[in-house]
Write a structure and sequence with these properties.
Lipocalin, about 15% helix, signal, DUF4488, DUF4488 domain-containing protein
Length: about 140
């Protein structure tokens, strides 16, 4: 059991490291620069372990922390439509309910480190707040 947990943690570390490097090494487009980053959902100003990773090339991956490590919950691309709207083009969702759909999200940035997203999916209205996760890529 312990070996499986360690192997899972190593695998997730490799996946996240490769994503971070591919997502943030390229020069970002000016209109996507604000959104690119690692964002953690907050509830009542407390971290949840749910991450939204927005790459500079239009990639988005959502992961959540579980006792066994991170689990990918959504994989797709995103396209900014305006300074307040973007579309997530969902190709893979953990419950398959959003596979092959386009989700319109309205966003607002009160400051460079706070992102609020609102959306409607199948008559459900949602609103989520995210805080930017600071990180540094070290290249040896």
């Amino acid at each position: 059991m312990r070996k499986t947990i360690i192997e899972t943690a190593r695998s997730m570390a490799l996946v996240l490291t490769s994503f971070f490097l591919s997502a943030f090494v390229a020069d970002p487009q000016p209109k996507t620069k604000n959104l690119a980053g690692i964002w953690e959902m907050q509830i009542n100003n407390r971290p949840t372990g749910f991450l939204k990773i927005l790459g500079t090339g239009g990639e988005v991956t959502n992961v959540r922390l579980t006792p066994l490590g991170f689990v990918k919950t959504l994989s797709d691309s995103y396209e900014i439509q305006s300074d307040s709207t973007y579309i997530e083009k969902v190709t893979e969702h953990e419950t398959n309910t959003l596979n092959q759909t386009n989700v319109v999200l309205r966003y607002q940035m009160d400051n460079p480190n706070t992102l609020t997203i609102s959306y409607t999916i199948k008559n459900f209205h949602g609103k989520e707040t995210y805080r930017r996760v600071p990180f540094t890529i070290v290249v040896n």
